[in-house]
């Protein structure tokens, strides 16, 4: 069953007389529990696609349906509820709250998520159970990204959206983070959508979507995705 | 090109920029305003004192002074000039008004400044040189006829000149009145020739000399002058220095009051302005760090970058100073314009505004200091290599705080922890917010508390202490004690007598009261009404403070025109409008003090015509004179309240925007995670409200402290007991809270416009 459906979605940014079409009549259907990679050069529209899906932005035209619910016309408060319950976000630059400890950063989602998971369990799952009382500034980049993943997972979302999650990490740490994300899809049944320009990550994906000039160039199923170890990093 | 960038950056940080300009303008404005007030007062009054030959000393005698006495005084080494002087309250025919009829034989001393009409002439047979303020209030013009009467003597003539005089700079009929009332009381000068012509020969034979005063210009100090005068005149006389006259003491009191105000409030405003500048400039430079680095990497010299960024602080300083100078002169004008209460109080021909020279030095110093703050902030960002400068500014690393180990802290919600740690992490910002709130609270408690204190004082004085409808002043010199008592009895009134006495070398009034009808009451230092006991003398709290006396101590005083000295027990200390000693007639009789009835206090509806009655003062007229004084007071309080609110809004808004900018990314994160705008807004506001509660808690004692300091500074003029009513607390707290909440809401509204995508894309 399709968990995500884009129907004729466009996003136009206007700045005076200048008009920029970041997404141009996009149609897309994604299945639940898959590891999906969106590829494309800078400015192709892949982040816009992710932001639409994450409820950070709304389309100018078309409808986006997630779990059977149209999210394209939601009010700001309804969008906040949607973000709290349905999607988890992982960014290239982690975006942790510097004044909260690791455990507090993860536990803060309990304030808003309807079915949150145990913060301790999530931190254990990402291998940070020994760092829970440290502040983000006391952790390495990879560790901070794992906290960010734990926070996203603690909301118990259906979909995990990751924007260049390994972009700021060295390759070794990046591999560790990708392994973690892959296991979320395989073991926990989450739908993972990763936006990247790193072609290698695509080799692990169940589905690879290629975006260019705001349009979907291809959306291909990979019958035999490679494991993290098999990819040549 | 850099100039263009300068203006664009100013626009970018417009909220901080405008708030800083306002803060600097407020600080400089209040500083300059209060200094302009006291300095203009000093210069404007000095002009009148100098132009009219205001006397340094006044020698009094009941028997009057002969021309030989005057020559003897003039012969004292160190005496520059002297005159025989007469000032006598007389009635204006066909009205209930009173004028102080004045004659100075030598107008170079205690003379007049003619503002309209003919120059004064010592030989003029029928000319009046009338107080221009009295003439204006009563519609009297040059050339109008005027008739004055004193007992059976009538003086008639025409108004030939309108004048002002240093002797009557503050023209009060007696010390119970606080503000002049030119509708009913003024002064008039006539020539010695006219006096001589008007007074019958028989009267002159009876009273001897008409001149009861010799006024002297001398640079001698008081003990030296008194000793020399005693020697020259052959007996102890009442000598009052200019500091002991109402005109000099009250005007000087106003100057000192202005100096006190100028030393407290501006410091508060300037300190907050400078501290806010430090915080703001640091934040602006921190957020401009990569641009500063870019300039450096492009090859700009450090000096050029320093000049460019210091220019922001210089522009803020210059604009703030320009606006502040306008505010300062506006404030000075507001307090002292010719139609205002100060002009009614102090009768000078013009109210020109002057600023003391040091204020310009201070203002230049403030601009230089603000520029230095900017300079140092940029220099900090320029340190190291171009690569170092290019790296974005990173705030301090979070560290665990000691109180985080407590169980209570662990139980706190994430919002509370977030805010607590943010306060600690951004200490300077939090402290500045706290200062802003404390400042706002201090001004409100101080301003409104001053009104409470004054209201309580006036309530005791008018509602309780004055329990009579009319005060009747008697011509004590021409009546016996028995006649005075009989008159008081016929009016069913209480009476008082007054004697001039000396404690040490300072002159005071001793008032003797016979209270049998409860018409006059006295308040102790707790503002409670107490009966006067017959077991000692009471002193006002100013004397108690100056001579370190309390109940049970002994007080020694010497009446003028007498040789014996009295040592009496102090029965209590009173809060009084007049500065003096008080006792009952029974106690005065016991110690053998002689006196005559000078005033009767009565409720009698009709007061018969009696040649011994000089004039009548209704309670209402005394109360009305305070209205003008209260009007001045209320103006000052409104100014303080407005300043408090502006200060609160500007400081809190500036810091609120700073906090919002610094936490923008964190708020964007919370928004992405799924927090609603309203919840994020509540988090932001709650930090402000904590600081507000803390600021209020500190601001209350600080406000009381400032008020106490102000009352101590004013203690030489008013005997005030600090009173703060519940409404004052409520208004101060609610207004401070309201300002904080309003600013919090203004800032929190902005989080609706957080661009989550843009905020989270940027690197840490």
Protein architecture, described:
The complex is a heterodimer of chains A (233) and B (764). With 233 residues, chain A is of the alpha/beta class. Chain A has a single domain, classed as P-loop containing nucleotide triphosphate hydrolases (Rossmann fold), CATH 3.40.50. Chain A is built from seven helices and ten strands. Chain A is globular, with a radius of gyration of 17 Å. In chain A, 29% of the residues lie in helices and 30% in strands. In chain A, a hairpin with a 2-residue loop joins strand 4 (61-66) and strand 5. In chain A, 49% of the residues are buried. The longest helix of chain A has 18 residues, at 171-188. In chain A, the strands form two sheets. A six-stranded mixed β-sheet of chain A has the order 6-7-8-3-9-10. In chain A, strands 2-1-4-5 form a four-stranded antiparallel β-sheet, with helices on one face. Chain B has 764 residues and is α+β, with helices and mostly antiparallel strands. Chain B folds into four domains: 12-53 and 275-394, no CATH class; 55-241, no CATH class; 414-466 and 621-764, no CATH class; 470-603, Beta Barrel (Cathepsin D, subunit A, domain 1), CATH 2.40.70. In chain B, the strands form two sheets. Chain B has a six-stranded mixed beta barrel with strand order 2-3-8-5-7-6. Chain B has a six-stranded mixed β-barrel with strand order 12-13-19-16-18-17. In chain B, a hairpin with a 6-residue loop joins strand 17 (554-559) and strand 18. The mean pLDDT of chain B is 86. Classes of the chains: A alpha/beta (233), B alpha+beta (764). Chain A binds chain B through residues 47, 51, 54, 56-57, 76-77, 80-85, 89, 91-100, 104, 107-109, 111-113, 133, 135-138, 151, 155, 168, and chain B through 395, 397-400, 413-415, 417-418, 421-422, 425, 665-666, 668-679, 752, 756-757, 760-764.
Descriptive tags:
heterodimer; A: 233 residues; alpha/beta; Rossmann fold; four-stranded antiparallel sheet; 29% helix; B: alpha+beta
